[in-house]
């Protein structure tokens, strides 16, 4: 199992504080990564819409429920270079391989990392991501 940075939008320069998500329609998952709550980052959050989501696993930000690779990639921005990249693609995971016989080889395993949460998403490759205004309080 390996992890690589996943870059659905440009300008992810720092860590994410929190993650929230909502599954409103079958197979659709809407995730908001709250970068705006991280001191020193712009007041914007990342909204990600996953199509064809077949599995989600949330846990506190300490690996334990779902295995992750040992050495996760770090951010490249100098002031955040000790922090894990918040958007990752996981290859050859047991979670991904358990769903591929049913849903096909096009599925991907995404790992979203914040200071407080880990969110595993197994979904099709059709993903839309956009920066939205943040929720930072004055």
Description of the molecule:
The strands form two sheets. Strands 1-6-7-8-5 form a five-stranded antiparallel β-sheet, covered by helices on one side. Strands 2-3-4-9 form a four-stranded antiparallel β-sheet, with no helix packed on it. Helix content is about 5%, strand content about 40%. It is built from one helix and nine strands. By secondary structure, the protein is mostly beta strands.
List keywords for this structure.
138 residues, mainly beta, five-stranded antiparallel sheet, four-stranded antiparallel sheet, 1 helix, 7% helix
Question: What is the number of beta strands?
Answer: 9
Q: Which residues form runs of ≥5 with pLDDT under 50?
A: none
Q: H/E series, N to C?
A: EEEEEEHEEE
Approximate helicity band: under 10%
Oligomer: single chain
3D shape: globular
Which band does the percent of strand residues land in? 35-45%
Count the helices. How many? Answer: 1
What gap, in angstroms, lies between the N and C termini?
A: 42 Å
Main β sheet profile: 5 strands, antiparallel
Strand order of the largest sheet: 1-6-7-8-5
| Mean pLDDT across all amino acids | 94
Taking Cα atoms only, what radius of gyration do you get, to the nearest Å?
A: 14 Å
Class based on secondary structure composition and strand pairing: mainly beta
């Amino acid at each position: 199992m390996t992890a690589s940075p996943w870059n659905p939008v440009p300008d992810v320069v720092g860590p994410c504080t929190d993650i929230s998500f909502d599954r409103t329609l079958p197979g659709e998952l809407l995730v908001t990564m709250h970068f705006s709550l991280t001191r020193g980052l712009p007041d914007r959050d990342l909204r990600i819409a996953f199509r064809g989501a077949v599995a989600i696993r949330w846990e506190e930000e300490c690996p334990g429920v779902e295995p992750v690779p040992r050495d996760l990639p770090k951010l490249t921005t100098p002031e955040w270079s000790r922090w894990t990249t918040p958007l990752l693609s996981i290859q050859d995971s047991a979670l991904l391989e358990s769903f591929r016989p049913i849903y096909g080889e096009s599925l991907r395993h995404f790992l979203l990392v914040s200071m407080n949460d880990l969110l595993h998403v197994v979904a099709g490759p059709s993903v839309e991501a956009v920066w939205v205004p943040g929720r930072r309080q004055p």
